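Usage

Read records sequentially. Each one opens with the input sequence:
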Amino acid sequence: MSKQSFRVCFCFKRIFKLRATEPPQDVRNLFNQYSENGTMTLEHLCRFLIDIQGEEYATKDDAQAIFHTVKHLNIFQRRGLHLEAFFRCLLGDLNTALPPSPTVHHDMNAPLSHYYLFTGHNSYLTGNQISSNSSVEPIIDALKRNVRVIELDLWANDKKDDVDVRHGGTATSPVKLIKCLQAIKEYAFHSSEYPVVITFEDHLTRNLQEKVAKMVTETFGDMLFRPETEYLSEFPSPESLKKRIIISTKPPKEYLDTQSSSKGREGKKKTKDSAKEHTRMKERHGSRDKIETEGSLNEAELEEEDIHQDEDLQNAVPDYRRLIAIHAGKLKGGLDSWLSIDPYKVRRLSLSEQELENAVRTHGTEIVRFTQRNLLRIYPKGTRIDSSNYNPFVGWMHGAQMVAFNMQGHGKYLNIMQGFFRANGGCGYVKKPDFLLEIGENNEIFDPNESLPVIKVLKVKVYMGEGWHLDFRHTHFDLYSPPDFFVKVGIAGAPADTQTKATRPIEDDWTPSWNDSFEFPLTVPELAILRVEVREYDTSGKSEFAGQTCLPIAELRSGIRAVPLHSRKGEKYKSARLLMRFDLEEIRDSD
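and closes with the structure output:
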């Protein structure tokens, strides 16, 4: 492909010569340094891997594997690599920014509370929170992407004789619970053998709870984790729970027909009235800003009734109660009670993103302390009817293990979430940083609100890119000329670390070369994500998306690396990629 034409009108075409991809000057210099007489041998390449790429344990076998990747090309020579072959190796799949064959390398023997879990919200919805369909397909897709926490909202069907999964109080269609359970059983360990947690939002009567207990028991059998005692004093480890299914829920007070106290009747009436008012409000107000999804009824109102979980569990169906391995619920009282720690019991607490934002202003260290032993789940606010997401770092910086996301859409925060859980072999579990788990000599806990010193600096250089002409139509970005690409590079993480920079746009070029360098000081490199997004510049100011990726800095390989790009939904493009260089330098204490 040496030329490309763009039709401007019926009688006129613009013809552009396509520039061949050429190695950047840095690559040329390194090739000259690690070659002899224009040839890079196995020994030369091995030394390059150790010295420049930071692969201190690289062997000749590793170098040989790289040689094999270009053997099918005409540019390969039997004695070794010349410049063009070396350049192709750098852009190859064995030289990516993250390890090409990721493995689980975190310690997986700590309690579950010491890990972040890849967590879904309303996992059965195919689209928005109001009118989309419920299906097993989003559940299957999430499990294939190593999501480890699946949320199901349980409601009686129209005949009140079976259990549906749906977003109650909305126009979303239902799907049978048994179909969801069967899908989870089939795909739970498709891509990761570490445990799957199913969180139930339960709106059932006693007889239907009995039916759920039978369904779950018969579907999962020995896969189901059942603790020996009703309450756990400490959560088991992910390693000990491999290929196990864990149920987490809190039986809702208002649907337990054994409660006959006036307080119980009032609680039931209050919830029903809230649901009716919610429906009336929905009918009265069609605009998005005035509709609040039933998610806030499901989670916020059920959680905020100040029900003590012990009282609920005593009234729950025995077989159903025995399913519950992770007890959920808020204790009576306000935030201080919710975050109280029982030395003999661990539990799960759920907060909306708004509740968390309010809580961190006054109870930051208490939240960190709570999450050292207990689980904290954060869920999207009810007004996110478009299934959008929120900043996950507020939760992660405070130790929240289950930051629940809508997985069916796309957007910056979902891309960040996907990038974050590419760490640790992509198994769906990421070990929390030590500073969130440590307790000082005087019982002090990490304070997320304190300013932190810069401890590392990430140096990034964006060399060039290629492959768009293979993944996109030649008129996709511009009807009349090749694209004008530029790259946005930034950090998502702690507030002090978050920033974005950009290269200059390169005009009319499918294989642009930028050679632009950036530096990013980091106070919390353990949680930082490198965001890379390519856009096509437009003089109108509305640039067009051309690929993205999010990379956990803790897993980033140093040196000159290929960076494959992904779509908005996180699907990897076949060809589009960048060539970049990464160096992570520690800041030495002047003392």
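Summary fields computed downstream for this record:
- The two ends are 59 Å apart (CA to CA).
- The CA atoms of residues 474 and 545 lie 15 Å apart.
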